[in-house]
Amino acid sequence: MMTKTLFERLGGHKGISMIVDDTVDNHMNNPHVNARFLPLKENLDQLAIIKNHTIDFFSAGSGGPNNYKGKDMVTAHTGMNISPAEYVHVIDDIFMALDKNNIDEDSKKDVLAILWSLKGMMIGK
């Protein structure tokens, strides 16, 4: 029996796009991290670039057909000095988006494993 990829379980490109949109909305409303995201409301072109890179990153990393052509995680986050607490808040925002999009528990565990594997590439850079 063939099992679905995480990409498929997240709803493919359309599902991941909705999850990314919901996550960014959550970040904008999260007082623990919104200072990093609210300025993007004034630069919609930059916001669209970040969203598209995020969609491609998660699509490629979850077994989808997209090729990620953005910066590597260390380069993308260098100079941001993200704290461990901020990282957890971002994960919480992602999980709220996964819940809103009715993602199953096994898929959420897979997403968490990916996010946790990226932690060292983002915190304190």
Detailed description of the structure:
By secondary structure, this protein is mainly alpha-helical. The chain has a single domain (6-122), classed as Globin-like (Orthogonal Bundle). It is 67% helix and 0% strand. It is built from 7 helices and no strands. It has helices at 6-9, 12-29, 34-37, 44-61, 73-77, 84-100, 105-122. The longest helix has 18 residues, at 12-29. The chain is globular. The protein starts with 5 loop residues before the first helix and ends with a helix. The mean pLDDT is 95.
CATH class: Mainly Alpha
Number of strands: 0
Whole-angstrom Rg: 14 Å
Q: What percent of residues are in strands?
A: under 5%
Which fold name corresponds to the CATH topology? Globin-like
Describe the SSE topology.
Blueprint: H1 6-9, H2 12-29, H3 34-37, H4 44-61, H5 73-77, H6 84-100, H7 105-122
Helix pairs in contact: 2-4, 2-6, 6-7
